[in-house]
Amino acid sequence: MNSVHFSSGTGEHAVVITRVAEQQWHAVENGQVVGRGDASRRPDGRLFISIDSWHDTVFDQLATAMLADLPRPLYTVVDEADLDLTSSWERAGFEARRREWEYLVPTDPRVTGLDSVQPPSGVTTVPAGEAQEVPLRALDRAIRDEVEAAVGWQAMPAEVLPRPDGTTLLDPSKYAVAAQSDHYVGLVRVSPITRQPRIGLIAVRADRHRRGVARALLAHALGSLHRSGTATAWAEVNESNAAAVALFEGVGAQRVSSNLELVHR
């Protein structure tokens, strides 16, 4: 793999940046690895990079080498509270693309106020693992088409974007759905992570908005977690999604941190 020599390092010796693998770079000074860079392609095809180093100079040198080797656009994600890391990426030419709030969500219906919430008239909730796969996939595709026609799925986190082969729904057992007549009209996905279950997605067909379907799905998901002995769940919400922010904050979810997705075009 190619190497790049930098005359200034963290001490008296030059730093050598080497692309040691297709998606990995090392910064070596005086025979010691003083920094690492990695690239990974997400399921939607976007290329994300990360850099781990103790010194700003080495970070900048790794960033320069990686940017020279990789195609644009490039993405990275940082904890917004880490001002030094954010500043390092900005020096490399990255800028904020989206902000995602991270929430800690109580599951106790006496706390959330969801104890008396029921689905709208004519709507029933199908628990996770019981939804029929064919109509579930049809709902997923329909909702994606609606979002794409509105704000676009590029506004969504990488994990819910279409994969290169067109697959958009990997594990149907994680989804509970709202059903009306013989159609599915809404869905919620919960990833049953042992320490902190994660509410990964709540979505409702556009013609069923503002009828309480999303609130009923959230009540079902949180209630199920509460009955299983889980006190809190985790959720991430795009700051521009006012409806989702209102939904979670309306049930007492606490905003605990935020992540920035940065892009270099």
What does this protein structure show overall?
- The longest helix is centred in the middle third of the chain and has 17 residues, at 133-149.
- This protein folds into 2 domains: 3-98, Gcn5-related N-acetyltransferase (GNAT) (Aminopeptidase); 101-260, 3-Layer(aba) Sandwich (Aminopeptidase), CATH 3.40.630.30.
- It has helices spanning 56-69, 83-91, 109-112, 133-149, 213-227, 242-249; strands spanning 3-6, 15-21, 24-29, 32-41, 47-53, 74-79, 95-106, 123-126, 175-180, 183-191, 198-204, 232-238, 254-264.
- The protein has 6 helices and 13 strands.
- With 265 residues, it is of the alpha+beta class.
- 25% of the residues lie in helices and 36% in strands.
- The chain has a 13-stranded mixed β-sheet with strand order 1-2-3-4-5-6-13-7-12-11-10-9-8, with helices on both faces.
- One of its GO terms (molecular function) is acyltransferase activity, transferring groups other than amino-acyl groups.
What descriptors fit this protein?
Aminopeptidase, about 260 residues, alpha+beta, elongated, about 25% helix, 2 domains, 13-stranded mixed sheet
What is the architecture of the largest domain at the second tier of CATH? Answer: 3-Layer(aba) Sandwich
Average pLDDT taken over every residue: 89
Order of helices and strands: EEEEEHEHEHEHEEEHEHE
Give the total of domains. Answer: 2
**Computed Rg:** 22 Å
- Total of DSSP H or I helical runs spanning 4+ residues: 6
Strand content: 35-45%
Instruction: Kindly report the name of the CATH homologous superfamily of the largest domain.
Output: Gcn5-related N-acetyltransferase (GNAT)
What is the third-level CATH name, the topology of the largest domain? Aminopeptidase
Euclidean distance between termini CA atoms: 25 Å
**What characteristic shape results from the CA principal axes?**
elongated
Q: What is the SS-derived class? A: alpha+beta
Tell me roughly what share of residues is in helical segments: 25-40%
Total strands: the figure is 13
- Strands in their spatial order, largest beta sheet: 1-2-3-4-5-6-13-7-12-11-10-9-8
The low-pLDDT segments are 158-162
Organism: Streptomyces colonosanans
InterPro entries: Acyl_CoA_acyltransferase, Bact_Acetyltransf, GNAT_dom
Protein name: GNAT family N-acetyltransferase
Pfam families: Acetyltransf_1 (PF00583)
